[in-house]
Amino acid sequence: MFLIYLIIIIALPLYSQFKVKSTYNKYARVRSTSGMTGREVARLILDRNGLENVKVVETQGVLSDHYNPMTKTVALSSDNYHNASVAGTAVAAHEVGHAIQDAQDYAFLRFRHRLAPVANITSNASWIFIMAGLFFSSMNNLLGIGIVLMAVGVLFQIVTLPVEFNASSRAMNTIVELGIIRNEEEPHAKKVLNAAALTYVAAAAVAVLELVRLVLIFQNRE
């Protein structure tokens, strides 16, 4: 049983990373019919939503695209920023989706932002208690504390899912409504967004599985 569990928690993240990279690389080579670069797509959607104050900037790396709510900045990786591809269009629209969530005070996004600093601390601290609790079987209470701390990090992973799914949904609706992509490009853009979403699903699934495993260990020791 443990071997199956180990295979799942190793294989699932690896598969999700492979899927997102292979899908992105495939459609990054497909030029969008609109001929708009990722920067132009992001700027158009932002302006149409009255978000002229949000900046679009270039950032280094591959698939390093993100939205920074503190600086009100959509950062696009160099390829997406400069090139006109189906993948770049989908990614740019997705990140702008987060900017729109921020502007509309989307509940899950706000909750995730508030939870993030707490989750960072508890996730790091949890393993100190968990390892101590696992190593010293007589100190099961330490394992219990570690599980509680770890649960905060797992909650953060779960809350991230609706945030990402909603941003992708907004992205698809917007690029279709504005005519940025044509009908034949819609399935390709969806594949890029779905592959990206899979990484978050995999991370959440692995986190939940690990939490469940530790809870079972804790219960069996009582």
TrEMBL record:
<feature type="transmembrane region" description="Helical">
    <location>
        <begin position="115"/>
        <end position="135"/>
    </location>
</feature>
<keyword id="KW-0472">Membrane</keyword>
<keyword id="KW-1133">Transmembrane helix</keyword>
<feature type="transmembrane region" description="Helical">
    <location>
        <begin position="142"/>
        <end position="163"/>
    </location>
</feature>
<feature type="transmembrane region" description="Helical">
    <location>
        <begin position="197"/>
        <end position="218"/>
    </location>
</feature>
<dbReference type="InterPro" id="IPR007395">
    <property type="entry name" value="Zn_peptidase_2"/>
</dbReference>
<keyword id="KW-0812">Transmembrane</keyword>
<dbReference type="Pfam" id="PF04298">
    <property type="entry name" value="Zn_peptidase_2"/>
</dbReference>
<protein>
    <recommendedName>
        <fullName>Zn-dependent protease</fullName>
    </recommendedName>
</protein>
